[in-house]
Design goal:
By secondary structure, the protein is of the alpha/beta class. It has seven helices and 16 strands.
Length: 230
Amino acid sequence: MKIIWLGHGSFRFEIGDQVILLDPWLTGNPVLPEDQHEAATAGATHLLLTHVHFDHVADMLPLAKKHNIPVIGQYDLLKYWEEKEGVAVIGFNKGGTVMAGDVAISMVPASHSSTFTADDGPRTGGSEVGYMIMAEGHTIYVSGDTAIMADMEWMGEYFKPDIGILSAGGHFTMDMKQTAYAAKKYFDFKTVIPCHYKTFPILEQSADDLFAGLPGVDVIEPEVMKAIEF
């Protein structure tokens, strides 16, 4: 299994014969060079969407059409895309589990927002979610953009994720100290990978507080396009 950060909240998961792109943000992503876009998306088999803010959804439909691959995400929005955009989808909802090849993906709650701007004002594009990705003896908790929430207690107890990919940039999501608190209180991670930070000056630029708050946990600061292997 390889986990590859594409910058911000975007990841590439290479698991067996599946290549799953989580919220792949290419257009305007200041930390993913344009000459890396093809490599970042090559061989993709599925797209996985947490919510519809531009820095998560901007390239979803173009990639679905270019690679002729399904988008996995919340049913309401994806059914609309299937009908209006002609893309393949795997739509489900919180509490459900779907398969991408041999990879099981369960949708779990997040606490954020999921809107986009239309001519007449903000519109809702479903609701924000996270995922548990289960394969090859590992369970990865992808928090998506979220604040600390009480639901993390049952999610940690029920799914027992050993890897956490956690939004930690602050301002729009948990910051590093909050992420460390949530990881320690609700989960028993072996590995924590922070994300949604360093992209813009308004976000956290260092993971020092995460390291300090999680002694004994393997905190890995991801590097863009560098594989983390398990």
